[in-house]
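Per reviewer request, we include the raw input and output of the structure prediction for the construct analysed in the revised manuscript.
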Amino acid sequence: MKLTSYTNYSLRILMVAAMRDGELVTIQEVAEAFGVSKAHLVKCVHQLGVWGYLDNVRGRNGGFRLAVPAHKITVGEVVRKTEDCLSLVECFDARTNTCPMIGLCLMGEAFKEACAAFLAVLDKLTIAEATHNRDALLGVLHLKNHLPVRAKA
């Protein structure tokens, strides 16, 4: 299984927004931090805003920030939203299946169970947990946090 770049970039965008703790982040900053095209990120930022994860602010001094607390966003829910199809094998989709062994082969059930286990693990990880080492991550990405670091509770 390989997740799409769309999912990868969406998760990175949410992580950067979480690390910036309410401060507006620009698509340009993220593009430079990860060495990817702004065009690839625009669609992600827009859709994350439509889904309610980001507060997107237009204009010259605009950008985006989390609209939902990072501890309430799980990686699993984002993966489910950003991946068009989590069908690991064609027999997952009865409309497009061409395998004559459907219903007789045990592999389809094993793949369904494996996919469910994969998502269950991702459901346990929040964006906040994924960014617990915020200062180190911001440093590696050469991103600044202009807000004071909050003491952990």
